[in-house]
Amino acid sequence: MNSSHTSLPRIAVLATGGTIAGEAGDASKTSGYKAGVLGVDKLLGAVPSLSQVARIHAEQVASIDSKDMTPALWATLCTRVNALLAQDDIDGIVITHGTDTLEETAYLLHLTVKSEKPVVLTAAMRPATALSADGPLNLLNAVTVAASRASWKQGVLVAFNNQIHCARDVTKTSTYAVDAFRSPEGGALGWVQDGQVEFQRAVVRPHTLRSPFQISADLPVVEIVTSYAGASRAAIDAFVAAGVKGLVIAGTGNGSLHSALQQAVAEAVRQGVAVVRSSRVGAGHVMRNGAAPDDALGSITADALNPYKARVLLMLALAAGTASADLQSVFDTY
């Protein structure tokens, strides 16, 4: 990369809060802190070497703990991302985010951002005030990935603990470890270290410009129900009575449903509720097979999407007016 400042890529850093912007009264504590306290200027100030990687345009979009993420904020964020990427003077975007719902936001953007330019989410497991805080290096690496031409046309990425993940594949796998994010099925796309970015595989499924989905502030209501030993149909019945448009079942094993839930699912489908079977296992894919009689129940399967990402896709598909008969194809494709 040319070392002259004016030739560096211009990267927009959009801050939304999270642990990466968290603050605690004791540097030895990595829990009990307040998330989203520090502004984007403080985050950037902790990484002076960013000026050697990119020219930074910074915006504070939100200051929340990501457990409180909402579809309305998704809409605000996505709209701003699309507007910035449409500018000739913006070469990519980095979003700082809390870890709790990062994978949901990343997949939502993966399907609704309309640009070939890189969008990279990053976060931290330790607050900014902690000993060995991981946020500054994650932020530096995320900007490095966003500034790399190799990241174009890869959809939305997550840069965390030196690894680069696809938004569709990545999930949080630890409550405390600094390598909390993994892609259980396909593995990471590549890595970033000391300014070097390497992709070892490409994103295959359609996304961004090849995705038909659009963001909306009033996405259809989709809820998640879990199957487990002794499960009751009460949650499904309550959600249907409340008028939900879709349900995702976090099933056991290969998305299997307790017998008490199967009849409730069939009745929900007959009332016009879209039902998707995912799995609570954490890895693998859910197939249309004998684990649950999908044809009889009218349910569809989530492929390798975990329940939370399956919910995102179902919300977007229903918002797009996708017919019930076409929903399985959507999950097989995206």
Could you explain how this protein is built, in words?
With 334 residues, this protein is an alpha/beta fold. It contains 9 helices and 14 strands. Strand 12 (246-251), helix 6 (259-270) and strand 13 (274-279) form a beta-alpha-beta unit. Helix 3 runs parallel beside helix 8. The protein is globular.
Shape: globular
Helical proportion, percent range: 25-40%
- Per CATH, the superfamily of the largest domain is L-asparaginase, N-terminal domain
Helix count equals: 9
CATH architecture name of the largest domain: 3-Layer(aba) Sandwich
In terms of DSSP E residues, the strand content is 15-25%
Number of domains: 2
Main structural class: alpha/beta
Q: Could you tell me the number of beta strands?
A: 14
Rounded average pLDDT: 95
Radius of gyration, in Å, reads 20 Å
Spatial strand order of the main sheet: 2-1-3-4-5-6-9-10
* Low-confidence blocks of residues: none
Largest sheet: 8 strands, mixed
Question: How far apart, in Å, are the first and last alpha carbons?
Answer: 34 Å
CATH topology call of the largest domain = Rossmann fold
Enzyme class: hydrolase
Keywords: Hydrolase
Family: Belongs to the asparaginase 1 family.
EC number: 3.5.1.1
